[in-house]
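Hi R.,

As promised, here are both runs. First protein below:
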Amino acid sequence: MGLLRNFVVVTVIALSEFLSIGAGETNSSSQTCDFQAIFNFGDSNSDTGCMSAAFYPAALPYGETFFNEAAGRASDGRLIIDFIAKHLGLPLLSAYMDSIGSSYSHGANFAAASSTVRRQNKTFFDGGSPFSLEIQVAQFIQFMTRTAKFYKQGQGNSFPRPEDFAKAIYTFDIGQNDIAAALQRMGQENTEAAISDIVDQLSNQLIYLYTQGARTFWIHNTGPIGCLPVSMPKHIAYNYTPAEGYLDQNGCVVYANDVAKEFNRKLNDTVVKLRTLYLDASFVYVDMFSAKYQLISNAKKEGFVDPSEICCGYHEGGNHFFCGNYNATVNGTEIYAGSCKSPSSHISWDGVHYTDAANSWIANRIVTGSFSNPQLPITRSCLLA
């Protein structure tokens, strides 16, 4: 058990370093939503440039596949939120913190890498983020308030129309870093109680946004954290064979995934409750865990290499340097932790985040509603179930 705990703690440390009134009244199969804007909240899984604008800018090889330059995303290309925007016929979301060359006419992205639902006691330099969900929602309220002011002054061309806020889709992908923190504190606090608190705080922010006019909520659960390559023994300890039952058939850490599943179960229960309390709103729960795990389980069949393989970074002989590390040396030899030759064949980009190709695969499945409760495609997610 001590060794298991050590693995979990090391995994979390590695993670922290990377780290509308428009709801319809009918359910006609031909009816779709007229989303004019997206407002997104989350962590590095959907950060399109917040942390890069607020702190040190991203650098190549991040962004190399699609953007041909660093674009503030923790991937070689696009994130799932980018593919969602494309599917809805909207432009890619600009980060709220990025004032250079940004347009907010069709929404804004408040997600920030390393962010959590709960408040943190860590700085950026400790792998933390000042942009908890509470702060992201506060930033949104400021954005909405100032946008209304600009329109009254005849200066709102670069922002959503005031009526678009009620008809927007509000997307959420956050909680993974909270779970990582709970794993790190395993044995120091009640994990089940911590998960309940995380979900309760997330619920409070959803309710607050509802009171401010939000009516369509698209809520991702958390992915299989135990399947992230940095969680796996092969990337933590050299030539170590874990005890039986530590890993599942896909090489994922069972305990870490179990904690993620518990979070997801409570989140789903909460979304169902919100749906019964706020009958004029649409709350769609999206099972990202199952979508991502399906890809990992069928990696070879879907044209990908072993899902434990990391595209960007240096991971050999027990030496691990994360993506883009220019100051790495092994036995006196300078090593550049660059990217692999074919990112599109990999699921994992840097050990924590997914590649453009993997994000595309996942997005294509979730927008159909196949992994949603209720099973509404995202183009019809404003409809009341």
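And here is the second one, sequence first, then its structure tokens:
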Amino acid sequence: MDAESTKEVDEVALASVAAEALGKGSGDIADAFRELDMENYDEEDDDGLGDAYYPSSELDPYLKDKDDNDSEEEEDMIIRAEDSIIVCARNEEEISQLEVYILEDTEDGPNLYVHHDIIISAFPLCTAWLDCPLKGGERGNFIAVGSMEPSIEIWDLDIIDEVEPSLVLGGIDECLEKKKKRKKKPKFKEDSHTDAVLGLAWNKEFRNILASASADKKVKIWDVATGKCSITMEHHSDKARIKPYSLFYHWLEDIVQAVAFSHHVPQILLSGSFDHSIVMKDGRKPSHSGYRWSVVADVESLAWDPHTEHSFVVSLENGMIQGFDIRAASSSSDAELKPSFTIHAHDKPASTISYNPSIPNLLASGSIDKMVKLWDLSNNQPSCISSRNPKAGAVFSVSFSQENPLWLAIGGSKGILDVWDTSSEAGVAKKYSKNIDKKS
């Protein structure tokens, strides 16, 4: 027996011993060794592909699973038209950003997760959504951000990992800054705000129009299609006041805190200030001084009633909420215009309010006292139908959902975004059961 035959016998014998240990027959193992043909393992098979490759990943059967995973990941990154979105402005460890959340309706209630985030340049103070084409582009999904800077940044929410805003309104003129030899007051772009932007409002009818309110005491109207300021208004008075709870200022002058366009007559704009007044201006009468309502404390926020064209509410630094009827202002701009109702709503500043877009007379309010409350305003006789401490800290913002009208988004000083399904509250279910049935 030659050496080669001896080697093969030894291998078969070894395989037989191993097979017996496993309780298997030696014949099967020996046949398996012969089929492997290990001696010719490295030789190229003339019928194989050799060094050839598939012209595309789609044709490679071994990449099918990978492609499927990539497709699923790409699908997850798409924001669909039917998705409910919440944009949360946040500052944490000196990093300011916008977090874009997707809100899903599940059997267990609202499910909230971050889709992507956008790093912004300064501490955010206010936002406004808009869909106007920017500089001749397509209708999109944009958000305007006011901050501690005098500029307004507009970001495209549909672009992942965006590093620059699509448009910047106003701000410091960097070209002029570089030419300065000595450190002096900053040079601003033409028609820019010169201080922090505290309030923003988008006009849903004239979709290229954005209003802004600033600590420089001015209200500006911007055309986002051209990136230019078309109107500047200075109709709030001048005196210095202290705002003890403010995170941003120790001494605050009569800044303009909030602006709001009417839902029904889009030429009408409200502005609220720390001069203890609300002013209504009509763009169809530019020479008119407007109508003024006096209140007893600094204005925190404004909201038009989406269900009637003649009513709005204002929340104040002393915790009160007041409602007004603009029909009382039709006779004289000098008359004392009294509120339709007054609510002693909170123990500390009522920082935010939101009308329900689908259910008449339902208003939400949030406060520095950490509470969120729901109010029924029927017949100008307000009543509190539910309240909650969402554990979000001082509440800075509340907003009802457009798609699910009884969901309320809540943001506060703890950096927590909470969604309150108010339909689960007994007072809401009892009062608005018909509306809930219609929406379900």
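A quick note on the second one: The longest strand covers residues 95-106. Let me know what you think.

Best,
J.
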